[in-house]
TrEMBL record:
Its EC number is 6.1.1.14. SUPFAM superfamilies: HD-domain/PDEase-like. Keywords: Aminoacyl-tRNA synthetase, ATP-binding, Cytoplasm, Ligase, Nucleotide-binding, Protein biosynthesis. It is found in: Cytoplasm. Its main location: cytoplasm. This is Glycine--tRNA ligase beta subunit. It comes from Salinivibrio costicola. It catalyses: tRNA(Gly) + glycine + ATP = glycyl-tRNA(Gly) + AMP + diphosphate. Residues 584-687 form the DALR anticodon binding domain. The lineage of its organism: Bacteria, Pseudomonadati, Pseudomonadota, Gammaproteobacteria, Vibrionales. The gene is glyS. Belongs to the class-II aminoacyl-tRNA synthetase family. SMART domains: DALR_1. It is an enzyme of class 6 (ligase). NCBIfam families: glyS. One of its GO terms (molecular function) is glycine-tRNA ligase activity.
Amino acid sequence: MATQNFLIELGTEELPPTALRTLAEAFASQFDAQLKDADLSHQGITWYASPRRLALKVAALSDRQPDKVVEKRGPAISAAFDADGNPTKAAMGWARGNGIDVSEAERLKTDKGEWLLYRQHVPGQAIDVLLPVLADNALSKLPIPKPMRWGDKDTQFIRPVKTLVMLYGDTLIEGTILGVASNRVIRGHRFMGESSLTLDHADQYPERLEREGKVMADYEKRKALIIKDAKAAAAAVGGMAELDEDLVEEVTSLVEWPVVLTASFEDKFLKVPSEALVYTMKGDQKYFPVYDANGELLPKFIFVSNIESKDPAQVISGNEKVVRPRLADAEFFFDTDRKRPLIDRLPELDSAVFQKQLGTIKDKTDRITALAGQIAERIGADKAHTERAGQLAKCDLMTSMVFEFTETQGVMGMHYARHDGEPEAVALALNEQYWPRFAGDKLPTTPVSSALAMADKMDTIVGIFGIGQAPKGSDPFALRRAALGILRIIVENGYQLDLVDLIRDAKAQYDDRLTHKEVEADVLDFMLGRFRAWYQDMGYSVDIIQAVLARRPTKPADFDSRVKAVSHFRSLEEAEALAAANKRVGNILAKYDGELPSSVDTSLLQEDAEKALADVVAEKVAAVKPLFADSDYQGALTELAQLRTPVDTFFDNVMVMADDPALKANRLAMLHLIREQFLNVADISVLQK
């Protein structure tokens, strides 16, 4: 069977930059799946993507499907022929459906009987017939939330399609996809190189497109070039470029021929907090800011042009003119906002709605101020500073800067609070109240900040649950992220806080606004549920997490200690046997409907194995008591692991369910005591091998 490289390129109008990589990777994945379903072998798929194209190159693709023999089983012989040996209607109908006579059928013998069988030879289809259909199927499965129509066509795609190239080696694969017929013509850069090129062979892609059409279709090559040149450009002005992954990806998706240039802005703008300047440079203009070795913003920025200009100074000047009004706006807002103390904006929060059933942002501010103060007392934070931070927490939402540059909320509150002479802990908390903003993000750095951050997040979670809007599929209030943030703050700081207390206190701030009666129980379940995803991400197996969840510890720091202890226990040689023994004990106790003695009666011990076990149990119960008191779960489980041998010996030599009721109850009481020791940490019976 012959092979050739196959190329498909879809030329489009400008594709959405934030979706370009996703579309390209999905196209490759879906097309690969189509080839596998069609039983077409190949040696790998490489994807290409630029603002105006999606392309795939399939290495050594087979020129046709392999021939197949399809077996079609018919009726059982007993049902296929009557007593005289004549075919029944069932047999004749089956044969007719396969285009044969009953006499042409084979017989399939198995251990379970004998059936009619037809082996059909199915020749494989040629590649030129299959590829248009497979490509169309793959494109139809791309993640496109809002497909569009164009012109007078009924076809839909994320953007209008202009060209289609399908080449199998040097052969044009004819076909129409998304209303466009395949040919050999690809489009070059809009302003440089050849506007169009005719390909003779699939192997000419992407080299000819880059050389003659001035389009670098290799996405990863473009990205690497941007990063390399941006670093070099920053170093040339004595700085380091901030190359955020998301922004680099977006810029890579915006250009077909990246040219990295450096521009400047006036030094006077540096008196504005750098966060505001960076926000407008990165968010509005897609520029990379430059910092010095001390992390201070330099009056420089790096941008990526889509053309190789003969006069780059003009391109640089143009970008400087574009960004200057935005920086001037930031300067004006900063100067204007500082004319009023931040606290003066507190009453204005009554005009902004947090959620119509939960009141205004001023209402939320009052709630989190009270809740943060309560949390502060529990974690040893300065209560006065925490409550002051609560009052100021949302005031920067009423400033011109945050109104214009929304992502600067919190950080501008910090700068304005410092200008007003607020304590540093208060100012810092205004920024850090939103931390962590995403998975893996940094945590608040002080107890005051931590108290405010937890109060803000818990207020939102309890409020939204309290009006019956718990997240299902979508999560518009980011409650999952908020819950995980609270857990991380508690666990990673070792705060001895109980979720039950936090939820109850948060609910109390709402008075009678909440309509959902089970809000406290539901929020607790929701919070505990976040542990599974978090610890799985950290590499803990589901059964370890489930073992702890079975005990429902509501102190996150305590939960963390238990998970780590069970994880260590599971690594011990004795763990598997003790987990099985605990499961066995649990099953036995579940079936016993009598009342167990409160303690083991040593006078009723008869067998040597049960006497030995009773001695060890008594010793270990005494040994683990102070360990449990100190929450030293790992130490306790390590001690209890020594029960393995006497427990195994007990089960091998002692009849637990003895005929004598007193003897049976005493033995069950001892097993119950053992199980209770493990349950002080987790239900290890759910641990898997």
